[in-house]
Amino acid sequence: MQTIKLANGITISYQDKGKKSAPTIILIMGLGAQMTIWPDELYYGLVKNGFRVIRFDNRDVGLSSQLDKLGNPSLFRAWVSKRLPSYANTPYNLEDMAGDVLALMAGLKIKKAHLVGASMGGMIAQIIAAKHKNKVLSLTSIMSSSSHSSLFSSNLNVLLKLAQRPKKSNREDAILYNVKMNRLIGSPAYPTDDLTLHQNAVRSIDRAYNPAGIKRQLAAITASGDRRHTMKNIKAHTLVIHGTNDPIIPVSGGRNTAALIKRSKLKVIDGMGHDFPTPLMTKMTKWISKHAKKADKKRLDKKRKKQADIKCINASLSS
């Protein structure tokens, strides 16, 4: 793992594998999730398929900057702020987190990248693709949506259970909560056994644990609101992946995302929840690789055609 201090003052912990000359894929993780949640099968599979692949901890999670100085935001005020701007007091929003990705690219001297975002990470990737088109080679949005309403309007019972975090930073309580959370959001068709859930929880909690940071990220999602009007500006070739049994963001969120983006392809996975089941990682790696390579080929073909047209015009002018 490496760290870099961005121009905006945020320190980001990241992993960078693959040839520096290869097309770059940047993996953007979701709410409260460390970069280690990206399965190694997917991460190293993409590297093996010829990409330079970067995964990183978002601000306020993992080993990146913990912004405790920004306080403990009110989720109610974050929700109200989208309707009554005078109430706005959220520490940051998703556009700020999108700025972190752009600053990371600048710091690593990456001009353009294929963006792959999961859940909240998909929302961040959507913002970059809509507002910074020249930085995006392709977009893959996994288990994400175009609006926070998809997060809060359905499956409220599951969300309320997930909100019951341990009040104190007790290691054992945090591990038990992590196991409970991943059992709730997991894929019914691809269940993870309890031993693996516990081992994953131990690794995650021992690496980093900051409930207040997760709350600030959730406030960022809430305050950022609806992106449907901006998503229509996305021109990048887009792949949308969603599970039929997602208990956090229903599959309708994925369908809506695909419907809003003109050049998009939707892959719906039966029995998948809001996680990355190991049996699906070979298939998902293949989909993302194929999607990115196809986007690269189309971009190269377009560039060659443009160069040929210029050469043809110059030849006509000189004759």
TrEMBL record:
Location of region: Disordered: 292-319
Biased composition (Basic residues): 292-306
Record keywords, A-Z: Hydrolase
Keyword Oxidoreductase among record annotations: no
Family matches, as PANTHER family: AB HYDROLASE-1 DOMAIN-CONTAINING PROTEIN, HYDROLASE, ALPHA/BETA FOLD FAMILY PROTEIN
SUPFAM superfamilies referenced in this protein's UniProt entry, alphabetically: alpha/beta-Hydrolases
Record-annotated membrane-spanning stretches: none
Protein's recorded name: Alpha/beta hydrolase
GO MF entries: hydrolase activity
Keyword Hydrolase: yes
Record domain AB hydrolase-1: where: 23-275
